[in-house]
Amino acid sequence: MALKYVSEYRDSQLAKVLIESIKEKIEALHSSGSIKAKKRLRLMEVCGTHTMSIFRHGIRSVLPHTIELLSGPGCPVCVTAQKDIDAFIELSKQDNVILTTFGDLMKVPGTFSSLQKEKADGRDIRVVYSVFDAVEIAAANQGVTCNCNQANSANKTNQAKEVVFCGVGFETTTPTVAASILMASERGIDNFSIHSAHKLTPPALAALMETPATQIDGFILPGHVSVITGVDGYKDVFDKYKVPSVIAGFEPLDILKAILMLVTQQISGLPALENGYERAVSQFGNVKAVQIMNQVFEPADSVWRGIGHIPESGMRLRDSYKSFDALKKFNLELKDTPEPVGCACGQILMGLKTPEQCMMYGKKCTPAHPVGPCMVSSEGSCAAYYRYKGL
Ligand code: SF4
Predict the structure, then answer these.
(1) Which of 31, 62, 116, 150 has its CA 20 to 30 Å from the CA of residue 15?
(2) Looking at ligand 1, which atom is closest to the CA of residue 345?
(3) Ligand 1: which atom is nearest the Cα of residue 382?
(4) Could you tell which of 79, 345, 378 is best to mutate to test the pocket of ligand 1, judged by most ligand atoms within 8 Å of the CB?
(5) In this predicted structure, what is the pLDDT of residue 1?
């Protein structure tokens, strides 16, 4: 079974070596009695892209059964609070608005609707592949009045439209959104705005550690977020909680290597913050990207789906860029709205449940008819289970 998957890895020989090393070290841990009492070593892959890669490459099946991989709160669409989803839907209903979004958000159910349903009802909702596409849509919809003769001018006047972008994502995405706002500002594109539901990763790790039930023995930290934050981005959280933590890339060999590093830390009894993705992640990260992000945004308290309020875990526009705040522009307020009844997304994002432990998994909730975002997003745990494990 294992070899079927290992042969598909880029360097199957190295994969075998890594898997054997993990097995040997886990056996050593067992014989030393370190994990006997707990039975399993609970390692959390924080990032949804890791979850997908782990499933796609059958990594769970090649690991000793005493290693339990938990999916964490690293799927941006999944952690977006219901009230932010409802706000995006409400923004799409405003007069003269073009709402722009990444595709993952389209099917996420809000309290009464979804962006997909609103689009079917005739709202102008467009999927973009980059926030800069949204800026260009705004530039093309600023409204133009020609200087031609009066009889024809009505035909040659384009009405301005407001273009709103749904700001969802982590440190990987937020600097780009910040850059788009700087670009719109420089070009005088004042019909562009965003609703920011951006999140920061380290406060979520701290929230997990403050929840004793999670019992996390180690973090596989997200490679792409770490490209921006650098190793140092996790330093404060690591110094406080001393949980073994390894930054990992997204190839199966990267993930196996990170798991081996975490198991090795368990054996040594010396928790460390290590970089297993040196080819992309530096100690200090992308300083310029962080600078741009912090120029436009500032940390603010934020609500995460299922997890709740986490201090300083979101990014809001600074006062000097408030004219790009879509809620202010349309005089809308975020309203607390309940999450779908029975949806266990929140517990899944904290590693407290698996999708199969949700009563609706595969029954009332499927990728074709999702109840919660974890079944919608390409990085969602429920979607990963459904696609690769089935019912
Ligand atoms: S299966 Fe559906 S309802 Fe259950 S936790 Fe996942 S997304 Fe929510």
Answers:
(1) 31
(2) 5
(3) 6
(4) 345
(5) 34
Summarize pLDDT for 337-363 with one digit per residue, the tens: 888 899 999 999 999 999 999 999 999
pLDDT at 62: 92
As a whole number, mean pLDDT of residues 156-178 equals: 91
pLDDT, tens digit, 9 for 90 and up, residues 226-262: 999 999 999 999 999 999 999 999 999 999 999 999 9
| Whole-number average pLDDT of the chain | 91
- What pLDDT does residue 145 have? 59
Q: Which atom of ligand 1 is nearest the CA belonging to 386?
A: 1
Residues 172 and 123 in one domain: yes
The pLDDT confidence band at residue 30, using thresholds 50, 70 and 90, is confident
> pTM here?
0.90
Q: Do 192 and 239 belong to one domain?
A: no
What residues flank ligand 1, with Cβ below 6 Å? 343-345, 348, 355, 358, 360-361, 365, 370-372, 374-375, 382
Going by pLDDT thresholds of 50, 70 and 90, the confidence category of residue 298 is very high
Residue closest via CA to ligand 1's atom 7 equals 372
**pLDDT score of 156:** 46
Distance from C-alpha of 85 to C-alpha of 91, rounded to nearest angstrom: 10
Do both 93 and 173 map to the same domain?
yes
Question: In 3D, which of 266, 228, 173, 210 has the Cα closest to residue 246?
Answer: 266
102 lies in the same domain as 142: yes
Tokens matching residue 143: 């409204």
- Identify the CATH number of the domain in which residue 178 sits: 3.40.50.11740
| C-alpha 230 to ligand 1 mean position (Å) | 33
Q: Are residues 35 and 174 in the same domain?
A: no
- The alpha-helical segments, DSSP class H, found in the chain are 2-6, 12-32, 48-56, 59-62, 76-79, 82-92, 115-120, 131-139, 150-153, 174-186, 201-209, 223-229, 235-241, 252-268, 287-296, 326-329, 345-349, 381-388
Q: Report if residue 388 sits inside a domain.
A: no
Say if residue 180 is in the same domain as residue 101.
yes
* CB contact at 8 A, 240 and 210: no
Q: Helix crossing, 48-56 with 381-388: angle to 10°?
A: 10
Q: Are residues 295 and 156 in the same domain?
A: yes
